[in-house]
Target: ABC transporter permease
Amino acid sequence: MDNSQEIAKDYSQPVSIADDDSRETVIRKESLQEKLRSAGSFVLFLASRLVQALFVVWSAVTLAFIAVHCAPGDIVDSLLTDTEKSNEQMRLRVIEEWGLDKPVIVQYVGYIGKLLHGDFGTSYAQKKSVNAIFAEQFPATIQLTVVALIISVVVAIIGALFISRRTNVVVGSLYKGIELTLLSTPPFWFGILLLFVFSFTLGWFPVAGSSGIKSLVLPALAIGIPMGANLSQILRQGIEKSEEQPYTLTSLSRGLSPRAIRWHHSLRHASIPALTVGGMMVGGLLGGAVITEQVFGRPGLGQIALNAINSKDLPVILAVVFVSSLVFVLASTLVDVLYFVVDPRLKVARSEE
Model:
């Protein structure tokens, strides 16, 4: 009996190891399947968002095309300046370029085809292609928008992380008052104040123009600080709600400091609503750049749009509509993708659907 028990003990260990190996294999397979499901759900989600983005841009372009054809008067007269309306050769050129002698559906297909090839047509008011106009001035708007966005993110994170319920009451109240004032201030008006103080009074920065980094500082601050104040308020409220959740108490019990919890846990959970509002504010950021460019005398989309409206330059106006809708769509799609990066629970929810 003792010998049989010893033999059983000798054989029990290999059987246990085999069972453990089989369990590890099953776990690996399940983990791989979970990763594949998560990746597949993300690809499907991204594909659906891209389809929606294409539909939005197509709708904007189509509505612009319909508006041109439904506007009162002759389309050729709308495309040409007042001095060129009586020029017969110019009228024939416009008719040929826009296909106005063909059925409307053919004109529409031709117009979409040109946009797909990146051809925005010709500005008859400025005597150059619309592509050349955007190539000269639009990079300045992108530069201003990107720098302003970076400033807004820095302001939002600093305000959200370093001002909390534990902050001194006087300091916290003072910051929140300044924050409320800034987020209620229009960027162009804030830009005028910055010009008065730092350009007219102190002479630290140029009044107008786009030459050098110094000419970019004040316009970027005029747009980025009010936007950052808005995001800071949303982030701070999200962090305060996050600190009331059970996982915060669990993290504290494991020895994490309140600052580490705010940096590594609360900020991530609070960034979801901030991303949503930030994506919605991109359009306002672009619009704020348009007005701010006029205040600071900078080239860019604002100058393009203003000149086109004043001279009734329809091809440029149509290009501005297309570019603006494209920026909105790209920002919205990017925010949707960042949701998956910031909050892994969305991957699980999508894979389970």
